[in-house]
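hey m, so remember when u said the tokens were messed up on ur end? i reran from scratch. heres the input so u can diff it against urs
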Amino acid sequence: MKKRAILVFLIGCGIAIFFLPKEKVIDSEDFQGSIPKSFTVSLQGEVLFPGFYTFYEPKTILDIVFLAGGFTKKAETTNINLNEEISKDRILEIKKKSDEVIDQKIKYDINKVTFQELLRIPNMTENRSANFIIYRMQVGRINSVDELINVKNIGAVTFEKIKDYFYVS
């Protein structure tokens, strides 16, 4: 009986050794192509949350600034290409406007303003800017700045804060 049990055990072990899948030993060289390489962007200056941001795939400056909470009201954004793609370690410095420029409000044509330009306006979030573009596409032409109140997520308080940034041509 013991011999039979030992024989069954040995046969079972033999089957396990020959027929069960074997663990593959993975060499570190096999992983070189599959591990994404990271890069770090140091975002400094006039953003809400300056600091170091690590990414594994290319990002636009607009994406990075959005993750940092957006620009402050004092940010000088006229010379920044927000669509520039970053894919390696970099330091981005968002400069402060001069006091003279801060007091001036840049005005945008309500029928031509782009999504990126809308994001430069204080209190215009990404969501409000997208809703504005959708509204403008639906109505065709906006005839008065007062029509901004009809845009989803722009209430009376927000309207008062942003109306001076627009004009109708």
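this time it looks ok to me. The radius of gyration is 29 Å. if urs says something different then somethings off w ur setup not the seq
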